[in-house]
C-alpha cells in the first residue's frame, strides 16, 4: 500500500522553537541557551512522568511548570512579565521556511495531512494560525483528547482513528527521534526530520525515511509513490 | 499509623554512582562529566519510553544502549574494553558511607527494609553484595518482575504487595526527586535524600520529609515515632 496520509508532530517539526531560545537570551543574557535546553528537557520529562502516573494536565501548564523549575535550577529570577513573554512565544512560533510549500504540494498529491501533538488545542490553534497553515491540514489532533502524552499508544491511536486508515498506511513525521521511535513501535511508517543532525536513538527502531528538512520528506513520498507505480506496471 | 517499613531506591540513593563518572573521566579525559550526565539522562529516558510503549528490556541492556548512544552523541570512540569497564562499574558500586550504620539502626528499631529498583536482579544482587548490605534488607525488589520501570504504578505496587502493608504506612526513600514524586502520587509516605541540593520538581508533590543524607532519614523516622508515642500517651 502507498502512503495515504501524513501525520506531523508540531513543535520542532513544523514550528521553529528557535525563537524561544533567542527570547530567553534577551531576557537572561548568557543563559538563554541553557534555559531553553533545560526547559525543553523538563517539559518532555514532565509529560512522560504524568503519562506513566495518570496525572495528566494540559501541555500549556506542564510547559509553565517546566519553565518555573528550570529558572529555579539555573538561579534565574523569573518575573511574571518574563514568564508571560516566554510562554506567549509558544502562541506565535514561525514555521520553518520550506514547510508551507511542501505541505501544499503533498496536499495536491492527494495526501490527507494532520498534526498530532502534545500541545493542547488552544496552543496548537494559535501556532497553526500564526504559521498560516489553517488551510493545509485536514485534522489537528491534540493528545488532550486522551489525556496521555506521546509516546503512549493511546496518543498515537488518534491518527488511525480519525483518518480511518491502518497505522502502517500512514506516515508519521517528527524531528524528535524519540517520537519517531514511539510511532514506529506503534506501527506507523516513520520519517525522521533530523534537523539537528543528531545520532539515532538506541531504541531498536530504524525510521523508514530520514532527511534534514521537509523538502527531503517530499522526495521520500514521491519515491514511495513511484516505486509502487513501477511495481503496478506490467513488465 | 507509624511508619512500619522503608523502601529504598538503589542507584544514587544507596549506591554512589560517582565512581562511574570518575572512571569515565579516566577513559575519556575532559569528557567524563559530560558522558556520565548524558548516560544517566538517556538511561532514565529509555526506561520511560520503554515503559510507556510496553517495550521493556532489562535495565542492564537499557543502560548499555544509553552508553552507546551517549558516546556516539559526544563523538567518543567506545571500545569494547571501555564499554565493559564502564558497565562493570555498576556491579561494584560503593554505598554512601553513612548508609550501612543507618540501615542497621533502622532495622534494630523494628523496621522492615526493602530495595525497590529499576535495576534487574543480577545487577542489584551484585551491588548489594559489594556494599555488604545482604543482611540488612528483608526484600530486594526489581521492577523486572512487572516489566515496567518506575514511575509506573505497577512498579511501586511491588512494595505494598510483598510487605503486606498499605502504601501510606510505608516510607519510600529516594535521592531522585522524580522517583519521590512518582511514589508520592502512588500513595507512599516519601522522604527525599536531596544529596545534590536540587530544587524540588514542579510536579505538585511535596515530600513528607527531606534531608541531604541517610542520617537525616534516621532523624525523620525517630521523630515520626516519637510524635506517635506522645499522641498515644494520656495527657
What would your notes on this structure say?
The structure is a homodimer of 235-residue chains. The model of chain A has no long low-confidence stretch (mean pLDDT 94). Chain A starts with a strand and ends with a helix. Helices cover 49% and strands 11% of the residues of chain A. Chain A is globular and about 70 Å long. The first copy, chain A, is an alpha/beta fold. Chain A has two domains: 5-15 and 94-232, HAD superfamily/HAD-like (Rossmann fold), CATH 3.40.50; 17-90, DNA polymerase, domain 1 (Orthogonal Bundle), CATH 1.10.150. In chain A, α2 (32-52) crosses α3 (59-73) and α5 (99-108) packs parallel to α10 (214-232). The first copy, chain A, has ten helices and six strands, in the order βαααααβαβααβαββα. The first copy, chain A, has a six-stranded parallel beta sheet with strand order 3-2-1-4-5-6, with helices on both faces. In chain A, α6 links the parallel β2 (112-117) and β3. At the A-B interface, α2, α3 and α9 of A face α2, α3 and α9 of B.
Amino acid at each position: 500500500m502507498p502512503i495515504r496520509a501524513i501525520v506531523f508532530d508540531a513543535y520542532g517539526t513544523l514550528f521553529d522553537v528557535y525563537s524561544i531560545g533567542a527570547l530567553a537570551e534577551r531576557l537572561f543574557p548568557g543563559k538563554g541557551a541553557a534555559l531553553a535546553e533545560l526547559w525543553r528537557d523538563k517539559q518532555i520529562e514532565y509529560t512522560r512522568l504524568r503519562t506513566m502516573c495518570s496525572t495528566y494536565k494540559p501541555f500549556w501548564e506542564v510547559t509553565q511548570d517546566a519553565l518555573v523549575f528550570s529558572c529555579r535550577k539555573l538561579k534565574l529570577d523569573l518575573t511574571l512579565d518574563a514568564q508571560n513573554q516566554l510562554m506567549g512565544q509558544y502562541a506565535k512560533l514561525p514555521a520553518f521556511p520550506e514547510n508551507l510549500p511542501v505541505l501544499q504540494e503533498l496536499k495536491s498529491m492527494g495526501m490527507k495531512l494532520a498534526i498530532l501533538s502534545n500541545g493542547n488545542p488552544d496552543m496548537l490553534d494559535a501556532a497553526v494560525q500564526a504559521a498560516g497553515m489553517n488551510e493545509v491540514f485536514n485534522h489537528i489532533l491534540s493528545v488532550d483528547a486522551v489525556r496521555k502524552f506521546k509516546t503512549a499508544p493511546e496518543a498515537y491511536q488518534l491518527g488511525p482513528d480519525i483518518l480511518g486508515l491502518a497505522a502502517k498506511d500512514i506516515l508519521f513525521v517528527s524531528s524528535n527521534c524519540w517520537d519517531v521511535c514511539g510511532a514506529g513501535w506503534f506501527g506507523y511508517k516513520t520519517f525522521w526530520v533530523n534537523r539537528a543532525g543528531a545520532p539515532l536513538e538506541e531504541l531498536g527502531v530504524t525510521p523508514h525515511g530520514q532527511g534534514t528538512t521537509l523538502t527531503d520528506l517530499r522526495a521520500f513520498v514521491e519515491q514511495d509513490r513511484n516505486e509502487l507505480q513501477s511495481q503496478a506496471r506490467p513488465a
